[in-house]
Amino acid sequence: MRLDHRKEKNMKRSKRYKSVKEKIDKSKVYSIDEAVDFLIENAKVKFDESVEVHLRTNIDPKQADQLIRGSVVLPHGIGKEKKVAVFAEGDKAAEAKEAGADLIGGEDLVGKIKQAKQTDFDVSVATPEMMKKLAGIAKILGPKGLMPSPKTDTVTIDIKKAVEQLKKGKINFKNDDSGNVHQMIGKVSFGKDKLKENITAYVQAIRDARPSGVKGEFIKNVVATSTMGVGIKIGL
Predict the structure, then answer these.
(1) Per-residue DSSP letter, 30
(2) 145, 46 in Cβ contact below 8 A?
(3) Quick check: is 15 in a domain?
(4) What are phi and psi of 96, to 5 degrees?
(5) pLDDT digits (tens, 9 = 90+) for 162-195
């Protein structure tokens, strides 16, 4: 019975997906306004769908001078509050608490993560002096993208600012192995204006992070989609 039920749900979803896909003109590159309008109008599922933006770039990810790394504070956040861990001690730990960090600690926190071999946060921040102490859990944090880095301003002496920005909607981005960049930038419930502002800020941040080694065209195309929706090409 359960298998039949899941099969029926998949068939319903497939029909809805196909009907939405048929509305898209494959030969057209949509403006941000048109794309956002389309995503909102065709989000018919019962939950609040996330909106994602995927950029295909012209970088060679095997070249060290062509890697994309950066961060941006989205004007309206992403619709999900991040759980922030801070590796700091003394006054900086107090600063983290004041800024609203969810998890704060020094060697004690490192020890707990090392023993548990798992994490319970979305992003981490550390003071420069704490970085050498994180070496013991680098293999736990690294694969999950949780290792603090100066490139994303998560290794800093200004702990208060870093935590506040992350809580306001700061996101860190980097290319994948194919040279593409993917990011959730909000929820359908944000409405047109907020989604448009978030998309614009995000794409501009990618442009600003253009690696020095890239020659010619940098961003080849931009696609926006919702969780259960179809991809729509956006013109830059």
Answers:
(1) B
(2) no
(3) no
(4) -65, -40
(5) 999 999 889 889 999 999 999 999 999 999 999 9
